[in-house]
Amino acid sequence: MANIRSIDSVDFTGKKVLVRVDLNVELDQKGDAMERFKLEASKETIDKILSYPGTRVALISHLGRPDGKRDESFSLLPLVDDVSRALGGVTVRFAQDCIGEAVTEGLAALADGEVLLLENVRFYPGEETNDKNFAASLAAPFEIFVNEAFSVCHRDQASVTAITHILPSYAGKRLLEERAKLDEIRANPARPANAIIGGAKIETKLPLIREFESTYDAVLVGGKVANEAFDQGITFSEKVLLPLDYQGGDERLDIGPKTTAVFVEIIKKAKAIVWNGPMGKFEEKPYDSGTNAIVYAMSESAANIVVGGGESLTILERGNLLEKVGFVCTGGGAMLEYMNGKTLPGLLALESADA
Predict the structure, then answer these.
(1) Which residues of 176-195 are buried (b: 16+ CB within 10 A; e: fewer)?
(2) pTM
């Protein structure tokens, strides 16, 4: 396992620091964040940086898909108060841009202990094209870059990878913790080890199912992924358990009671579990029952559990179960790719030269 440069050895005194975070969260009708976990994930790292005298910290993130142009419906401005609460009441100022004078002036105006939130980095096409010149503009006001967003590490983009060639760059505490947890449960899980894969998009989930099929003791598959596997005639070994019955008639909107009972018994015996995706249309009763039963079984389990995926996170937050169901990974796509053995550009960019 390659070494990644950590913030633990960095002296941030008097430095201007750009921190890549993930604030790509669902907003309610009032514009408030519905996923507090993502907002809170970077708190430990930001607290550490702010503990050094004279530091000036700015946060950079994307929100949605504004297609490389300014679109106020994707502005990060409504998240200022949410970010402040997530950071324990730290004063958060807002910059109307992520490059240029708005950033330099915003940094200069910060008082000790305050944080500057930059505008959506995806308002510029150079972010998603990993443009070096745009990365240079992002980096210009700063002296150090910290990546605290494991969830975007599968993206080869300016605020994730290109910027690391310009500024001294380090991994935040949460990013390193997520990597370590995934390494542990991927390479050396306690037995029996089970994966629970649901949600949609068989094309993205199938490689992971195949990986677990070869390395884990059982793979429990539900949601649209199971439907798509049936419909496409995909075959698996006996390790992979597809639904025995359904709720929702021909639409197959949830796993049925027989399937739920089988899955729960397997979960009860597990020593390691990876969960990504719901078992059905969890947003609508009664098609949340399969997912709820699975989540309850995990909450009662002493297994080493790692959870990933936006829908999985939403389910845990709605049920106030974040502290009861294992370790929660901030990134669904990044988790899927990492667990499938792929090299993540954002992690590669942070590897030590002597690793």
Answers:
(1) bbbbebbeebbeebeeebbb
(2) 0.90
